[in-house]
């Protein structure tokens, strides 16, 4: 038929695309069948085992009815390919990569795709079972076999030994294939130069010829300049294996073939399916007679690769890193040069991609060699980084490139193409129409185009492919081989049109390295190796950035493939987690160093300096010989030599390098998932910072040790101050991070369910400080507003005043905040309610006696008899003292909260403002209500509790520790806390009962006064020893109460007794020892 009816160009394009899809589909089937988790159930089901064996044995002649799915329907593709190759041979087409680039490329691609499909098919072990069972299912469903089954089954048998069958098939195509391959004899060696020649030619350098910097980068073979090396090598190796006869007859073929064999050990069939070119070639030629020389050539090339290939490619990668860095620096500074020098960018990307892919496939299938380090690259991050930077740069200045090339096409290319057409001595009508349409399309382009203009030159490029096919057949009216100038011009025009409407596609062709998705072990190893180099850390974000390319790996022929998405996200998240981990580790190590420096400036650290100064003043020897003199804070900043590098210098450098990596991109899109790298850093920093802050508390439950709140606050401030320096490296919200971490510390648990400072300090103050205070080992000191350790035989592991003075509790309030102190208060209230419950039980045990005492408090003789019947008075006072100690501590912590006054009662209390009635205590007492007791019974219990306390007060005079200490402003056994306990507890109890607090407290005051006055009637010295101290307690109860007054006290207790008590407890002169 006519050239237009043959549609060679269209068939080549369609079959190549289809073949690519079939390869991916077959690879998916192979992987699915090889993995136990994804293997089809019918292949593993025991009930189908005999059927599978029968199919494999009898295939393709199966007399079996079964059940199942899916078939690799590749026979149809192979038949179409074979038919098209025969048509091309019949047309005696002319192939030359430098003349009809697209036509030749598509032809060679078809051969290699077809071969790859056959080879991959032979690697699927379950293919017979799959196809056989599919056909049985088809026959059961439709009553007949699948129409293509017989042909596919026959093909499986024919290609049991694929290479032997393929070489037989391609024998008739030797002329066309050889001609196409030999056209690479200029292009391939030019691309395969050693690094020395790259360096001498200053490849990819714009600075080597400054005068020509604005000249457009052109070539006679524009598309060949960034043709992938692996593609050419696959053409050469496959082509000469299929048409091996030419190797013995054509020296040029032999040289080109040997050059291809010297390129490496493996190349890719598809994804992670590779082929060992030397082994396959040697096995094939061993089966042919007269090929002993070729086998020797193969072995010689393999030895050459073993010796030289690794080092050659290592040097290339090293050169490309420098060249890419220089080229990017120039183009980033002057993006206008992207127009004329766009070719340089795509060449740089293509060359770099070639080296990345070569290393990946050889690293995964590492041969046993003497120099394995040549196959390890710990600087791969830099090459990937600049590839990503160039991709981003091209996208950013896409309109600059587009505008330049639109003008180039309209004002230069259209004119030179028109001149070329005019100079052609023959131009048939069909070809003339196509060429004229090219000129008219380019001439009509707007010179002053707007950035929003849409361009599409797809039709022009397809027409050029058709024209190549029309003019490449034998006896074509317009033979393209006679018009090389037309090819050069159209090659340039094609590249320029791609710069206008297909930049993204060209970037995909020249720089996508999505094959890394199928080599996760190699990919992760590259990241790990790059992470170990300090100067590579700034490039590490290129690894997760590459994962955004993996979405391009799929194909419409394999829509059910979903593993790539999971794998891509896993890799991306793994890299970002590792990067965040490294960055946060360095940053927190830097913070730790700053914390040490700040710790040296703490007041307690100057004790040695003061001591040394004192010794100097007294002219005493400072230190023993041999002891190193301690350096003063700030000495670390003195440098005698700038070459000396400190640990801080190293950390700052490493942090700068790691943070620089985040500048590559602000976010990534991996399979429609938006990934923000800095969020991983913030998340990791938050987790680590929480751990560090909790660790700074140094809490040890066994030894009852914990850091002082002021030291902890200083440490937190040192960390947060240094953390804020991170925002000068990366644009992240450090304030939000710090607030989030510190806010979590004010709650009982952090976001990960771990203990917080609030939990630790609440536990410590309750279990260590307050428990010891209840045992009188620690004394509440109203004079100094703190707790102090009592000097006893049992030494405490801490000094109470160092944890409870005003400055420490203010630091505690700042660290824990209102929420933390609220949690502390709730725990304190729980302990109070526990004590109140016990007190109520004791009241119930002595209820009858207490009722009588309440009614007979003014009858001394009767009271004396009733006291003998009353049990547990010391226990009541002990428990009330504990309540008083807890309430005193709570009051101290509340005083340290500094917030604005609020009108709401509970909020005012939570803000640290004093209230006559403690709402938290009221709520706690109210929560103790039970259904078993009525309000009247509860009221009676509370009234009798006050009676119990009042009548038990004289017992305090028996305790030798009840003496009042003027220095501390309280009693040595903390009984002065009874004043707080009685006032606050009674106020809360009677508020719950909605009773008159003042009236009930008056009754308590009368009863307590009466019982205390009876102390004076007892003449035994042992009882009256601390009588005056107990009198002061009564005065404290009245003084602390907002409901009682001095007048009320004087009405029931003589003032002269109080005056004498104060005179006794406050002597005029205190000896120095007591001070």
State the gist of this model.
The chain is mainly α and 1075 residues long.
Task: Quickly list its features.
1075 residues, mainly alpha, two-stranded antiparallel sheet, 47 helices, disordered C terminus
**Count of beta strands:** 8
**Overall pLDDT confidence:** 86
Distance from N terminus to C terminus (CA atoms, Å) equals 122 Å
- Tell me which oligomeric state these chains represent: single chain
Poorly predicted segments: 64-73, 899-905, 1069-1075
Structural summary, described in words:
By secondary structure, this protein is mainly alpha-helical. It is 63% helix and 3% strand. It is built from 47 helices and 8 strands. The strands form 4 sheets. It has a two-stranded antiparallel ribbon with strand order 1-2. It has a two-stranded antiparallel sheet with strand order 3-4. The protein has a two-stranded antiparallel ribbon with strand order 5-6. Strand 7 and strand 8 form a beta hairpin. Helix 19 (380-396) runs antiparallel to helix 24 and helix 20 (398-422) packs antiparallel against helix 21. The longest helix is centred in the N-terminal third of the chain and has 42 residues, at 292-333.
């Amino acid at each position: 038929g006519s050239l237009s009816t043959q549609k060679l160009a269209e068939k080549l394009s369609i079959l190549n695309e289809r073949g690519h899809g079939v390869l991916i589909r077959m690879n998916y089937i192979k992987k699915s069948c090889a993995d136990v988790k994804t293997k089809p159930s019918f292949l593993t089901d025991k009930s189908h085992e005999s059927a599978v064996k029968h199919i494999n044995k009898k295939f393709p002649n199966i007399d079996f009815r079964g059940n199942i799915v899916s078939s690799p329907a590749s026979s149809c593709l192979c038949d179409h390919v074979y038919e098209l190759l025969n048509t091309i041979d019949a047309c005696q087409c002319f192939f030359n990569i430098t003349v009809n680039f697209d036509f030749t490329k598509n032809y060679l691609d078809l051969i290699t795709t077809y071969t790859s499909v056959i080879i991959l098919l032979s690697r699927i072990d379950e293919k017979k079972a799959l196809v056989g069972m599919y056909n049985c299912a088809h026959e059961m469903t439709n009553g007949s076999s699948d129409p293509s089954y017989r042909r596919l089954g026959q093909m499986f048998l024919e290609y049991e030994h694929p290479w032997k069958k393929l070489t037989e098939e391609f024998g008739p195509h030797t002329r066309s294939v050889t001609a196409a391959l030999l056209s690479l004899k200029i292009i391939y060696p030019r691309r395969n130069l050693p690094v020395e020649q790259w360096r001498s030619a200053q490849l990819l350098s714009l600075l080597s010829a400054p005068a020509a910097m604005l000249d457009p980068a052109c070539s006679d073979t524009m598309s060949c300049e960034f043709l992938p090396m692996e593609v050419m090598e696959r053409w050469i190796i496959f082509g000469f294996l299929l048409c091996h006869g030419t190797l013995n007859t054509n020296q040029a073929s032999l040289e080109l073939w040997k050059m291809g064999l010297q390129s490496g050990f493996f190349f890719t069939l598809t994804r992670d399916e590779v082929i060992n070119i030397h082994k396959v070639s040697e096995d094939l030629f061993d089966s042919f007679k007269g090929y002993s020389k070729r086998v020797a050539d193969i072995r010689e090339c393999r030895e050459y690769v073993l010796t030289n290939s690794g080092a050659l490619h290592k040097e290339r990668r090293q050169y490309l890193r420098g060249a890419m860095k220089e080229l990017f620096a120039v183009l980033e500074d002057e993006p206008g040069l992207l127009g004329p020098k766009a070719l340089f960018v795509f060449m740089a990307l293509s060359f770099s991609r070639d080296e990345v892919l070569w290393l990946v496939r050889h690293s995964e299938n590492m041969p046993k060699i003497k120099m394995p380090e040549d196959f390890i690259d710990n600087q791969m991050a830099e090459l990937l980084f600049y590839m990503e930077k160039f991709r981003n740069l091209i996208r950013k200045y896409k309109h600059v490139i587009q505008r330049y090339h639109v003008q180039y096409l309209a004002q230069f290319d259209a004119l030179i193409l028109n001149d070329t057409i005019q100079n052609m001595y023959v131009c048939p009508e069909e070809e003339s129409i196509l060429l004229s349409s090219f000129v008219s399309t380019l001439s009509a382009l707007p010179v002053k185009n707007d950035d929003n203009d849409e361009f599409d030159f797809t039709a022009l490029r397809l027409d050029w492919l058709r024209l190549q096919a029309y003019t490449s057949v034998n006896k074509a009216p317009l033979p393209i081989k006679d018009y090389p100038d037309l090819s050069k011009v159209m090659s340039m025009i094609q590249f320029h049109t791609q710069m206008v409407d297909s930049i993204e596609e060209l970037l995909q062709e020249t720089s996508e390295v999505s094959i890394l998705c199928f080599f996760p072990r190699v990919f992760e190893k590259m990241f790990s190796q790059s992470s170990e180099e300090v100067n590579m850390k700034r490039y590490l974000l290129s690894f997760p950035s590459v994962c955004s390319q993996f979405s391009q790996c799929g194909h419409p022929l394999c829509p059910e493939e979903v593993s790539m998405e999971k794998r891509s996200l896993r890799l991306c998240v793994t890299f970002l987690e590792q990067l965040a981990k490294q960055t946060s580790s360095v940053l927190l190590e830097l913070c730790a160093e700053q914390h040490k420096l700040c710790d040296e400036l703490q007041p307690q650290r100057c004790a040695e300096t003061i001591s040394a100064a004192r010794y100097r003043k007294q002219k005493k020897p400072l230190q023993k010989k041999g002891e190193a003199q301690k350096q003063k804070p700030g000495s670390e900043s003195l440098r005698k030599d700038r070459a000396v590098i400190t640990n801080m210098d190293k950390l700052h450098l490493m942090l700068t390098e790691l943070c620089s990596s985040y500048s590559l991109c602000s976010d990534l899109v991996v399979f429609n998932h938006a990934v923000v790298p800095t969020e991983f850093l913030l998340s990791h920093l938050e987790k680590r910072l929480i751990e560090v802050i909790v660790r700074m508390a140094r809490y040890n439950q066994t030894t009852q040790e914990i850091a002082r709140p002021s030291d902890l606050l200083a440490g937190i401030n040192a960390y947060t101050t240094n953390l804020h320096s991170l925002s000068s490296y990366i644009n992240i919200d450090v304030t939000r991070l710090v607030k989030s971490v510190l806010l979590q510390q004010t709650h009982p648990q952090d976001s990960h369910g771990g203990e917080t400072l609030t939990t630790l300090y609440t536990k410590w103050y309750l279990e260590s400080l307050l428990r010891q205070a209840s045992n009188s080992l620690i004394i509440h000191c109203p004079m100094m507003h703190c707790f102090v350790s009592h000097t006893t035989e049992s030494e405490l592991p801490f000094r109470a005043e160092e944890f409870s003075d005003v400055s420490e509790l203010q630091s505690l309030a700042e660290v824990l905040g209102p929420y933390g102190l609220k949690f502390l208060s709730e725990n304190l209230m729980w302990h109070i309610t526990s004590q109140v419950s016990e007190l109520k039980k004791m009241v119930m045990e002595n209820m009858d006696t207490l009722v009588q005492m309440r009614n007979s408090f003014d009858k001394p003789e009767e009271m004396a008899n009733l006291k003998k019947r009353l049990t547990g008075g010391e226990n009541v006072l002990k428990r009330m003292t504990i309540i008083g100690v807890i309430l005193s501590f709570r009051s101290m912590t509340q005083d340290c909260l500094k917030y604005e006054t609020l009108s709401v009662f509970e909020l005012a209390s939570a803000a640290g403002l004093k209230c006559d009635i403690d709402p938290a205590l009221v709520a706690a007492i109210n929560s103790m209500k039970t259904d078993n007791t009525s309000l009247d019974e509860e009221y009676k219990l509370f009234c009798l509790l006050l009676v119990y306390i009042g009548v038990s007060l004289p017992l305090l005079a028996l305790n030798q520790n009840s003496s009042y200490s003027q220095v501390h402003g309280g009693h040595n056994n903390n009984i002065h806390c009874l004043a707080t306990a009685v006032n606050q507890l009674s106020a809360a109890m009677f508020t719950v009962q909605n009773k008159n607090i003042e009236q009930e407290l008056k009754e308590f005051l009368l009863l307590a006064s009466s019982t205390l006055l009876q102390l004076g009637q007892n003449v035994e010295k042992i009882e009256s020893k601390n009588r005056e101290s107990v009198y002061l307690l009564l005065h404290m109860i009245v003084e602390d109460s907002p409901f009682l007054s001095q007048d009320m006290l004087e009405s029931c207790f003589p003032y002269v007794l109080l005056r004498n008590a104060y005179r006794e407890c406050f002597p005029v002169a205190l000896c120095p020892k007591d001070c």
